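DEPOSITED CHAIN:
***
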Amino acid sequence: FGKRLEEKERIPPPQNGGSDSICSYVVNYLKYLVGEYRTSMTDILDIARHWKEGREQEKDLFGVITHMMQALERNLEDRAMLYDDPALMHIFLMNNFYYMFTRSRNSELAQYLGNDWLRDCKRKVDQHALKYKQTGWEKALA
């Protein structure tokens, strides 16, 4: 699933800069995974690790979740570059990072992502909001 997010073929982002369906799908999937299936997934990853002895070790559930969120961030940042309008690019990133932050912070997913990730995600929301304002004012004043 994480590898699918990293593929080079990119689906165009929403034209209005709104929150992307891929973002909501990944975050909700991970929330469900750690909420309902945490024990099962940990067992499955342990079994997979034993099967692959001698090769690269599989990641634990924490590592899988972190990897998928990083892959989602890269996917969104790459797709944001497809916008011709820089203001729309920042709206898209702000909306998606905000979605990731709000859906993760009060869930079991926050335990896996950690406070540093949550702070960084909130910082990205604020950063893109500021860049959107700056870009918008540049157009208005030009």
